[in-house]
Specification:
Strand content: under 5%
Radius of gyration: 17 Å
Order of helices and strands: HHHH
Structural class: mainly alpha
Length: 126
């Protein structure tokens, strides 16, 4: 029983750390974009979507955390990616690929780290 609680706790820590990492990677991407492309004024609505995409990322990873099968987890992440791309394309292709790549890579990173740590803990406690 203690091993299961430890796996859940470690999985939650992994997802929280990836959520924090999202902020830093997002800020690095914005600085890179502004230095190479410049600031583009597209209105408040498109600027506010960065925050909404983050909330959607958190919600999706909360769902992924509780889904039992790895294939279903990947399916949920794929649905998240398709919704992000549907929202941004065709009007904002750079943001579509940036936010689609950011949310998907961070979700897959959390998923892989959690599965790797779970397997390592399973070998340690068995």
């Amino acid at each position: 029983m203690g091993g299961v609680i430890l796996k859940i706790f470690v999985g939650a820590i992994v997802y929280l750390l990836v959520g924090v990492l999202y902020f830093y990677v997002h800020d690095i991407g914005v600085v890179y974009y502004k230095s190479h492309v410049g600031f583009t004024d597209r209105g408040v609505a498109i600027g506010g979507t960065a925050e909404l995409i983050f909330y959607f990322f958190i919600l999706t990873n909360f769902i992924v955390f509780f889904v039992p099968k790895a294939l279903l987890k990947l399916l949920v992440v794929a649905v998240m990616l398709s919704i992000v791309l549907f929202y941004f394309l065709p009007d904002n292709p750079v943001r579509a690929f940036a936010y689609g790549g950011l949310t998907t890579s961070m979700s897959v990173l959390a998923l892989v780290l959690r599965l790797t740590i779970d397997r390592w803990l399973s070998r340690s406690f068995v």
